[in-house]
Amino acid sequence: MVEVKKWVAEMEALCKPEKVVWIDGEGLDEYRKEALKSGELIELNNELMPGCFLHRSALNDVARSEDKTFICTTKEDDVGPTNNWRAPDEMYSVLTSLFDGVMKGRTMYVIPFCMGTVGSPFSKLGVEITDSIYVVLNMCIMTRVSKEVTKALGAEFVKCLHSTAELDIDKRYICHFPEDNAIWSINSGYGGNALLGKKCLALRIASYRAKEENWLAEHMLILGIENPAGETRYVCAAFPSACGKTNLAMLIPPEIYRQKGYKIWCVGDDIAWLRIGEDGRLWAVNPENGYFGVVPGTNEKTNPNALAAISKDTIFTNVVYDEDKNTVWWEGLDNPPKNAINWKGEKWTNREEKGAHPNSRFTAPAKNCPILSPEFENPKGVPISAIIFGGRRAKTAPLVYQARNFDHGVFVASTMASETTAAQTGAVGVTRIDSMAMKPFCGYNMGDYFAHWLKMGALIGDKAPKIFNVNWFRTDEQGRFIWPGFGDNLRVLEWILARCDGTATAVESPIGYMPTPKDINIEGLDITHTDLENLLNVDSELWKAEIIAIKEYYETFGDRLPQKLWEELSNLESRFS
Ligand code: GTP
Ligand code: SPV
Ligand code: MN
């Protein structure tokens, strides 16, 4: 605690707030009231949505700003071609002048928080300093904040400094100093830019540590699949932002699976920390304590569990406000409200325009999820049978395939591509390679990261999870999704688990092992055998173009790219010729 107090005093001297308030998760109503007074929050209908609030962000502050995100290490080479680099001294000097006096007349909140269950040797403690009540309330949902956490604080904690400042986009910086265990973020209040326990700590800083300590910090959901015999097996899945993690993590089995007795358990929906357990297998924990999920498209059909999770004690950001009912609405729900305010805070009159921002979000406590896994608090986590990678691809990637072995799986994951979404600023729908769905989140050189994955595979050996790739987003000539997705994705998971057990058949293709159409159960589905054939088709012309793009991408890593991956690429090329 001495160290924490010393650091807080230094930051107080820099930011010059009017007062300092320590947060321990209790008495939050006081802060909510203040936020209601300032207009930062709107209290929603307490009968229909108890404990729920609406927040509208600044118009220029609706998504992660990747171009304003920096990793500051002594050597530029250590961050690699996928990250923005600045020398620590140079960046500290820019930030110090921006933070100087930034909290004049404001309150400085100090939030000790824990990523992972409190007291576990695998958890990480942090302290976030912020001048935003919205950040305080979100952090209290997304992380563990309690008296117990404050008590546990010692010399080792991640120093997280945040200010919304003037929300000036030209002075926005999200900076990581992995050598100092520090994160400084200014001029944004948006989730991944401002809730520093999430992407900044639990992925960028944690991945840096994980490489040194032989574990993995990944952008992955964790879910348990209980079969009719009552056995639960766990899988992790990495999809880029807004590509279906929360939905898969909370899926409801199709009717025929429910009747047979299948159940799904949600352990996590965004981040997984994976370690080799005493039994030599890979075990995963979810370091978060809540969900910061995409709102649009969430409804009774796509994700009833998420809908239940956000029925109370939830903060909604940038959705539509229903003036008559004092509730919220978004695209994907029925019956748009007559009198409404759009996400920008204007009367919603032009209904051609979306009312909710495409990246509008909910912040809901994990315990609200009706299918939260009983293992959620287990500090050891859950043993992982399969790791699934996937992206949003209109063509190219088939519905599912299995990597030939672990190293080939690392190759598949390092080369996965996806179309960009509204979760990051910039153009939507541009295909980019997003290795392991970690391109925006890996805190060091991704060439070294691939080598680390290969090393982890070698350490685990025979007990390594099997690796798969999926794509729920393949479209037909009219641009419609062919695969029904959502709950029906369990049909693909069933094949994946059967492959892990050695009970499902597969055929070899140039890209890996694939099911034939008869291997995927489509009972009760409105899709044909031909649709499945299309979903499983591997177009060699598209793949030859893909190989060229992969080569160009790999070249950007120079000699930091493991030779093994070049070999895998050359093997893939020869299987297509
Ligand atoms: P982040 O929180 O940004 O990391 O996103 P996520 O990966 O958790 O994505 P999420 O589950 O919130 O889904 C994002 C969008 O994809 C939503 O609009 C969903 O409705 C849509 N989506 C999710 N799963 C499927 C699917 O299986 N098929 C189709 N067609 N759309 C899906
Ligand atoms: C993502 O963009 O992957 C998210 C939302 O999960 S954020 O917390 O903003 O990163
Ligand atoms: Mn995410």
Attribute tags:
alpha/beta; nine-stranded mixed beta sheet; 577 residues; eight-stranded mixed beta sheet; binds sulfopyruvate; binds manganese (II) ion; binds guanosine-5'-triphosphate
What does the model show?
The protein has 577 residues and is an alpha/beta fold. Helix content is 28%, strand content 22%. The strands form 6 sheets. Strands 11, 12, 13, 14, 15, 16, 23, 24 and 27 form a 9-stranded mixed sheet that branches. Strands 1-6-7-8-10-9-4-5 form an 8-stranded mixed sheet, sandwiched between helices. It has a 5-stranded mixed sheet with strand order 2-3-18-22-17, covered by helices on one side. A hairpin with a 5-residue loop joins strand 12 (221-226) and strand 13. The longest helix has 17 residues, at 197-213. The model has no long low-confidence stretch (mean pLDDT 97). Bound molecules: guanosine-5'-triphosphate, sulfopyruvate and manganese (II) ion. Guanosine-5'-triphosphate binds at residues 239, 241-247, 269-270, 293-294, 296-297, 302, 423, 472-473, 481, 485-486, 489. The site of manganese (II) ion has 3 residues, from loops.
Unreliable segments of 5+ consecutive residues: none
Strand content: 15-25%
Mean pLDDT comes to 97
What's the Cα radius of gyration?
23 Å
Can you list the ligands bound to this structure?
guanosine-5'-triphosphate, sulfopyruvate, manganese (II) ion
Summarize the structure.
With 577 residues, this protein is an alpha/beta fold. It has 16 helices and 29 strands. The radius of gyration is 23 Å and the shape is globular.
Task: Give the helix/strand layout.
Blueprint: H1 2-15, E1 19-22, H2 28-38, E2 42-43, E3 53-55, E4 69-71, E5 84-85, H3 88-99, E6 107-115, E7 124-130, H4 133-142, H5 147-152, E8 158-163, E9 173-177, E10 182-186, H6 191-194, H7 197-213, E11 216-218, E12 221-226, E13 232-238, H8 245-249, H9 255-260, E14 263-268, E15 272-276, E16 282-285, E17 290-294, H10 304-309, E18 315-317, E19 320-322, E20 327-329, E21 340-341, E22 361-365, E23 382-390, E24 400-402, H11 406-414, E25 417-419, E26 431-433, H12 446-460, E27 466-470, H13 490-501, E28 507-509, E29 512-514, H14 529-535, H15 540-555, H16 563-576
Parallel strand pairs: 1-6, 3-18, 4-5, 4-9, 7-8, 8-10, 13-23, 23-27
Antiparallel strand pairs: 2-3, 6-7, 9-10, 11-15, 12-13, 12-14, 15-16, 16-23, 17-22, 18-22, 19-20, 19-21, 24-27, 25-26, 28-29
